[in-house]
Amino acid sequence: MLLSNLVAYALHHSELYTFQHLGALTLTFVGYQVPYVVAFRLFHTYAGVIRYSSFVDLQRATFAMATGCGLAIGLKYLGLDEFGMPVRVVDLMSGALLGMTLIWSVRVLVKYLYEAAFKSPTDLERVFIYGVKNGGMALAKSILNEEPSRYELAGFVSDGTEMPGRYLLGARVYFNDEHLVEHLINAHVRTLLVSPLKNELLRNNPDMVERLVSAEVKIRMFPAEQEWDGKSELTHSQLHEVEIEDLLPRDKIEVDLPAIGALLKGQKILITGAAGSIGSEMVRQVATFGPAELVLIDQAETPMHDVRLLMARQFPHIACETIVTSIANAPHMERIFHEHRPDYVFHAAAYKHVPMMEDNPAIAVQNNIYGTRVIADLAVKYGTKKFVMISTDKAVNPTNVMGCSKRICEIYCQSLNNAIAAGKVVGDTQFVTTRFGNVLGSNGSVIPIFKEQIKKGGPLTVTHPDIIRYFMLIPEACRLVLEAGTMGKGGEIFVFDMGKPVKIVDLAKRMIQLSGAKDIEIKFSGLRDGEKLYEELLSTKENTKATHHSKILVAQVREYDYETACRNEERLLEASYSFDDLEIVRLMKEIVPEFKSQHSKYELLDN
């Protein structure tokens, strides 16, 4: 600033006069530096790192300079000139303007030299960013400020018509139309980064995805389950190569988080199947609401250990018991309920693989059916407020043992709830059931299998050209389970709107395309034992009632007598110890008349 003041003074006076009085002028302007020191200190002008200078730093420096200049002019009128060479107001203002110019020139020069020294454009991956509002700009700034850099920002993509042709952060904005791929190629760009606010638009624009994938443009986006608040900083390291889960069209699901939090905060929660795909996500989501205690049950030791580590790492403040046991181990479950007395039970434990249960119906009865009865009865005995069972769409018009076992679980829980309501069973527990279809990426589901087959070079095995399935993200499904558990009053079977079904062969083709592979074959292996071409969320004899949530319906199902349900389960359990598969399945068909086997050795029982 001292140099700026002297130069500005020389511009308004003769150079000879300035030189002759340089000593006196220097002393005078030293006095005028005090206001600038105060102003720079006040606005923390020197707190920033020069190579990261931004518009915010420009504003801060401008305000500091204006404040310092104003204080200096005030000092002049207070008589500072009497102690040195007289200066004019225009000299002080010119000095401030020149100082501002020099400060910013130095910052720009340092930033340029740093980038020239440490950022080699030839090594950077040129990218476009899809999104020009908050999310896109936050992502762009993350890229520009990264060191060492990996990306070179070459352009933006906008859905609006007002931005194309303009420039943001030195990069041109292009319109999202049929010429987008052409613009990418002309700009030597092979990667599109997607703003988190554009995830849903991209998923619901298959034409855009098709054009990009066909042109072998890599798409990177934020995890589908990650929500951005529009304010916090984005880190582009969170971006991942787009996967099929990211591109399946689906509507955004909103839930009443305050109501769920009010229900679960400070409560004791027991979750069965806590190490599984659904159960472990239930653990994560329930933990965010601050329960007093989590009691987690699963019989898979290694995944359960992973859950224990997750809780210790992310939620160390929550009391958590991780117990390796089977829900069908009645004495152990009795001890757990007696010791912890949970307020809420989320029952996700079950054997779920159709072919495995088709070959092992006795185990399906002992684990799925008897295990559910054990914990349901204990929930009533030890005063659990609400019991939420996670069922499946395979329980509707079942064609396999697994689906039928889950339907029998539904019958037991609903009939027990009705018996409590009628005063036939003493207790206050409310039983709620939730039904939904396949969840994306769950253990043993089709997508992980396809990924593994692609890694090996194929072929991808699809059971039938026309087979279709409903899909939902695991976090979305768990949020709906929590929402249904909140709204349920007891006895309901909630059905989730799963959106549009997806043809599995189309899923396979898209995954091959996304992988960049060219010659991977798709083979049709034939329907597996008990497998349906399509899944149903309601039987032909069931209707639904709407709820306040557009994605959750209540199935109006046939109700069963509790005592009859108990007798049927006792007969089934006794038969299971004989391991006579035909007799076990015959009894299951007797209990659930709509159970008609398909592509199974048990079809002879339907004749």
From TrEMBL:
InterPro entries hit by this protein: NAD(P)-bd_dom_sf, Polysac_CapD-like, Polysaccharide_Synthase-Rel
Membrane spanning stretches: 20-40, 61-80, 92-110
Domain called Polysaccharide biosynthesis protein CapD-like: residue spans: 269-556
Coiled coil: none
Keywords attached to this entry: Membrane, Transmembrane, Transmembrane helix
Similarity comment: family membership: Belongs to the polysaccharide synthase family.
This protein's name: Polysaccharide biosynthesis protein CapD
Protein species of origin: gut metagenome
